[in-house]
Amino acid sequence: MIKKSNKRRDFIKFSTLGILGLSLGGGIIISPYALQAEMRLRPPGAVEEKEFLALCIKCGQCLQVCPYHSIKLADMAKGHGVGTPYIDARERGCYACSAVPCVLACPSGALDHKIEKPEEIQMGIAVLEFKNRCIALTNTPVPKGHSKRIHDFVNKQNNITQLELDMLEKLDKFEGEPCTICADMCPLPNPLSAISMVPEEEGKRPEIYEGCVGCGVCEELCPANEPAIVVKPRLTYEDYYIKGLKS
């Protein structure tokens, strides 16, 4: 029995040391997640990713002042950058608040204080990546209950704001109509600088312009089961549409 216990202890000890060695060495376990960190959609004003990770003190103040509950803090499951703020656009995009409160709340410079208005935000770029999902292209009316997912997100918040309620009221009116949600719900002061619906053979197609800041609202509100339009974090209009860079 003593020999068996010793063997068991040795197995646990050396197995644990092996796992720790891989983790500390940043090998197979760590490196894929480190790369994923640069693919996150960061809050408005986020500086270059490596600098952002160095400057962010993980205080959560940007999250606390966001009136749309758009900002989340990365947990262990997200890998590299635990505790740093990010936005899951399909769950809740950034509504480009006029005062950009998240930037003002940042005490460390991880969110650049030179950003003072929505048009100056540059989070990423919207892309109609899955045309086969776009119901506007087939002239399919916005389905009943399309906004349930958005309502459910808002209703689970502890402090629902009037801004969120106003957004839901506007969104609900699209039910049964030809889909123009991504263009008409764009939160920028001049949405036509970022996106519009252009005629196609059967319906209309969302077209992205240079004014797009990558806020992710179009991805969040897309009524398809899976979003037809998605945001590419950290890319600009020039990067994607002119230089042809892909993320």
TrEMBL record:
InterPro entries: 4Fe4S_Fe-S-bd, 4Fe4S_Fe_S_CS, Polyferredoxin-like_ET, TAT_signal. Its EC number is 1.7.99.4. It is an enzyme of class 1 (oxidoreductase). Keywords: Iron, Iron-sulfur, Membrane, Metal-binding, Oxidoreductase, Transmembrane, Transmembrane helix. The chain crosses the membrane at residues 12-35. GO terms for molecular function: iron-sulfur cluster binding; metal ion binding; oxidoreductase activity. It comes from the Bacteria. Pfam families: Fer4_7. Residues 45-76, 83-116, 204-234 form the 4Fe-4S ferredoxin-type domain. This is 4Fe-4S ferredoxin. It comes from Halarcobacter bivalviorum. The gene is nosG.
